[in-house]
Amino acid sequence: MSHNTFGHLFRVTTWGESHGPALGCVVDGAPPRLALSEADIQVWLDKRRPGQSRFTTQRQEPDAVKILSGTFEGRTTGTPISLLIENVDQRSKDYGDVMDKFRPGHADYTYLAKYGVRDYRGGGRQSARETAARVAAGAIARLVLGKKIKIRGALVQMGPHRISPKNWNWLETEKNPFWCPDAKMAAQWETYLDGVRKAGSSCGAVIEVRASGVPVGLGAPIYGKLDADLAQALMSINAVKGVEIGDGFAAASLSGEENADEMRAVRGAKAPKFTANHAGGILGGISTGQEIVARFAVKPTSSILSPRRTVTSKGANADISTKGRHDPCVGIRAVPVGEAMMACVLADHLVRHRAQNG
Fold first, then answer.
1. What is the mean pLDDT of residues 8-24?
2. In the chain, count of helices (H) and strands (E)?
């Protein structure tokens, strides 16, 4: 098993490498007769596209998507949808100095140890470039979910600097290059990241993704839990080292009384009203109808200019300094990727729910 496919009924297979001629995905399980054009996908790819500010890699990729199959006269046919994104700005020569060295914190060593071959040009499938295909698939997933379900993401921590929940404003995420909902913190991040970038270093980040309008009942007990699939999807994103749903690890410090999402009946309403959402919109692996809240932590970019100690592929000690164009904080462009993965998981569970419950 090569494990390049995720999902059950709504399935996505990604393919391609960072410095190959192209990358893309095949989306299977999208219902027929959905209106779909390349513009519907491009709007989301543009949010992830590199080179849009000095705080991300300066690799200039238009990420122009082409639909190769699965549509007819502007609508899906119910057959596999194949999407192509060409690579146009590779600079493989930047990696000549590290072709025989393992970058500390990177997957260079494990890939070579497992497969016996390693694409040193940007990391091949290790590269965050692969996530462009996920964002394209997420655009189709959003169409499956419909307009009632809204998915939004934000950067809530960069390095040691966290936003203030009191200053949360979704409109601010469109006004700064960090997807930051806190205008005051966005200004501080600008100064902080400039320092990190000029030092040839990198930093990590925490992203929060929320989905509103999700109906009650998505997910299944035990091995089909919505939060388990969501955690797996977010954890599969390159450089992610931790995932939490709702209060997550903070719930361990709460009492049973504090953690309880109490409910009250509402006259004329079919569903009860929750007074809190510590569970992040999922109980027993099944959506409650509340907003689904997930966060994931992204480690610092492993490709840095600061010299580090390492070994070569032949087992000799060496020093390494990675040149080229890299994100000082890869978490910035992970925001639309996190949104896309949540969209794909929710679309899969929505189709599965309909298949079982009508």
1. 93
2. 7, 18
